[in-house]
Design brief:
single chain, 2 domains, 3-stranded antiparallel sheet, 9 helices
């Protein structure tokens, strides 16, 4: 029985030509989404192949082409040439539909700004979830305004220039009246806190509340 120092028995079949070894490695790398290590490549090649040498030749062959052979960590992979990556980019317009709660919250902020979360909830009659506020902030349609000089110093919310630009408004004065929004079902008939209900002049006046402070910090 041969010991560990005995030379390996010669293969019964000669190793494929180097060009064929390159082709086989090329096929392996093309078919695999993840990089393959030298050991993984060698394990798949016929006995007697020199994967390291074939990889070197293959890398030189791909140099300067649209697809290149790249070293990725301990592995190898065929990848788009870095300078051509911009060709693979695609721009998509993602349509995001606002929930009814978000629409109501946005409308209240637009017409009553600067307004606190507690005031929004009082007008709507229900709690405002953090997710609703976060969504409007993320869309850059509202921003944080000045803190109220009241106990707790609650933060206020105002609409942004991005909101006005999105809806084609020059200023908050171009917003439709609250009466139109209520008729469209976007707001209920609750009056502003501290105001008497059923005031015929309310709809015409409420739209102007806080508009002079639209872009103030």
């Amino acid at each position: 029985m041969p010991d560990d120092q005995s030379p390996a028995a010669p293969s019964l079949f000669p190793a494929p030509p180097m060009a064929e070894q390159e082709r086989m490695i090329e096929a392996l790398l093309f078919a695999c989404a993840e990089p393959l290590t030298l050991a993984q490549i060698s394990a798949r090649l016929p006995e007697g192949c020199d994967a390291a040498e074939a990889l070197g030749h293959l890398r030189s062959r791909y140099a300067g082409r649209g697809v290149v052979l790249m070293r990725v960590g301990d592995g190898y992979a065929l990848r788009t040439a870095p300078d051509l990556g911009w060709l693979m980019q695609a721009e998509r317009v993602e349509t995001r539909k606002l929930s009814r709660a978000a629409i109501e919250t946005l409308a209240i902020i637009a017409y009553h700004q600067p307004v606190t979360r507690a005031e929004i909830e009082e007008i709507r009659g229900v709690a405002v979830s953090r997710g609703t506020i976060d969504q409007l902030l993320e869309m850059d349609w509202i921003r944080l305004g000045r803190r109220r000089m009241t106990p707790g110093r609650p933060v206020t919310f105002v609409v942004t220039e991005g909101f006005l630009d999105h809806f084609g408004l020059e200023s908050a004065r171009d917003l439709p009246g609250l009466k139109e929004l209520r008729e469209a079902g976007l707001l209920d008939s609750r009056p502003m806190p501290g105001k008497a209900p059923e005031d015929p002049s309310e709809d015409e006046d409420e739209g102007q509340i806080g508009q002079s402070e639209l872009f103030e910090d």
